Amino acid sequence: MDLPPLSKEQLSTVLQSSRSPIELYNTLVEYEGEACLMSTTDSDVSELLSLFYSTFFFAHLLTDQIYEARAMTQRMPQGLSQNDPSLQNCLTLLRAVWQRKYESIYKILRELPWPELLRPAVESYETYFQEKTLKEVSHAYEAIRPATAANYLGLDTAAAEQGDPAVIQKFTAVGWVWDESTRLLHPKPIPMAPEKDTRLYDEMSQIMALVGKHGG
C-alpha cells in the first residue's frame, strides 16, 4: 500500500503509530527516496527535511545501525546538513558514537540544543545507550572502579569515586557487588535477552509517540 506524501503531519502520524524503533525505521526508509527529491530552497521544505533526517538518524541509532547511519548522513543534501543546526548535532553525535567517546555522547545528548520535536527521540536514545553500555560493561570486566563504571553511563564520576550510595546503587540494583574494602565494583553479566530488548523498544515507542502530539 502506498504511503501518503511526506509532510510534517504525516511524519507525526508515523511517529505516533510506530510500535517500535524498527517499525519507525522501516517506514522512514520508504520515505527516503521522496525526501531526496525535495528542494531545499524552500524554508518550509528545509524544516521538514531537517525533521525527517534527524528522526531517521535516531531511528538508525535506536536500532543499532551505526554503519547505516553513517551512510545515510552521506546521502542527505549536503547544503542542508552543513547549515542545519539539528543535523549538525546529529553528525557530532555520530562521530562520538563511532569513536565510542562515552563522556562526549552524554554531553552531546544532554547539552546541545535539540529541537523540542526531536527531544523525545534524543532522550530515548540516551536510555537505550545506557542500557546497552551497561550490558556490554557487565560482560567486559570482572572488577571495575566506580568512577570508570560511572563514566560509561554518564553518571557523576566524582561522586562514584567517593562511593556515593546513590551511584553505587545504580549498579548493585542489577546484581553487581560493591566491595567496600577494595573500593571496587564486581559486575554480574547481564543477559542480552531478546525479551528485554522488546520491552525497551516498547517503552521507547511510547516516548516516540509523544513527538506526534507536537506535530502539525
Question: How does this model look, in words?
Answer:
The protein is mainly α. The protein has two domains: 8-132; 141-215, no CATH class. It has twelve helices and two strands; from the N terminus they run αααααααααααββα. It has helices at 8-17, 21-36, 43-62, 66-75, 78-83, 85-98, 102-111, 119-140, 146-153, 157-161, 165-172, 194-212; strands at residues 177-179, 184-186. It has a two-stranded antiparallel ribbon with strand order 1-2. A hairpin with a 4-residue loop joins β1 and β2. The two termini are 24 Å apart. Mean pLDDT is 87; it is low at 195-216.
Number of strands: 2
Note the total helix count. 12
Main sheet record: 2 strands, antiparallel
The number of distinct structural domains comes to 2
Percent of sequence in beta strands: under 5%
InterPro entries: COP9_CSN8 (IPR033205), CSN8_PSD8_EIF3K (IPR033464)
Main location: cytoplasm
Pfam family, one: CSN8_PSD8_EIF3K
Keywords: Cytoplasm, Nucleus, Signalosome
